[in-house]
Design a protein that fits this description.
This protein is of the alpha+beta class. It has 2 domains: 1-30; 39-180, Porin, CATH 2.40.160. It has 1 helix and 11 strands, in the order H-E-E-E-E-E-E-E-E-E-E-E. Strands 1, 2, 3, 4, 5, 6, 7, 8, 9, 10 and 11 form an 11-stranded antiparallel β-sheet that branches.
């Protein structure tokens, strides 16, 4: 029994050592980051227009919700960016207090040119057994003084676990309007 525990500890130690060496190697060969015109952010409002789940479809009139995406963007090149977004969501429910949710929404964006950007975000919903991804297509509308107003089409896909081990998928089509800086 002691020999097995010793072998496991040795294996874990070797794994940790190799990970540290790999991380140091990556850090040593990576280029220095520059902050000049590489850091930005955005704030807006997102409206889920139509949702399809479990064979049923609802629209914004059936189940009104509003989210307030707030993000920090790090441009890694002229074409690519990493975007970290937090989305608090207000979900008014009849006869009950407003439900407030939060989605952790990191993603990768790619500029296509002519003020168009596409991307995909991972999605982790706090306070619920829901996770997924969100493809997006963004159009910058008007730029003034380092601020750009935009409209974004989003298609969140969520996998939601029920208490009995069942998982179902939901897909939504929504619109996000806001200001980037």
């Amino acid at each position: 029994m002691l020999q097995i525990k010793s072998e496991v500890r040795t294996g874990v130690s070797v794994l940790i050592r190799n990970l540290v060496i790999a991380l140091m190697g990556i850090l040593l060969v990576s280029q220095c980051a520059t902050a000049q015109d590489r850091l930005g952010g955005h704030f807006g409002a997102v409206f889920p227009l139509v949702t399809h789940v479990n064979g049923g479809t609802s629209n914004i009139g059936d189940d009104f919700k509003i989210g307030f995406p707030t993000g920090i963007t790090v441009r890694t090149s002229d074409r690519y960016a990493f975007d970290l977004e937090l989305v608090p969501t207000l979900d008014p429910r009849e006869g009950q207090p407003i439900d407030v949710g939060l989605t952790f929404h990191p993603g990768v964006l790619r500029a296509f040119g002519n003020s168009w950007t596409g991307g995909v975000r991972m999605a982790f919903d706090f306070g619920s057994a829901s996770w997924g991804f969100t493809p997006l297509l963004n159009k910058s509308l008007h730029q003034m003084n380092h601020q750009a107003y935009f409209v974004e089409l989003v298609a969140p896909v969520r996998f939601q676990d029920e208490g009995f081990g069942e998982t179902h998928a939901a897909i939504t089509l929504g619109v996000h309007v806001g200001m980037g800086f």
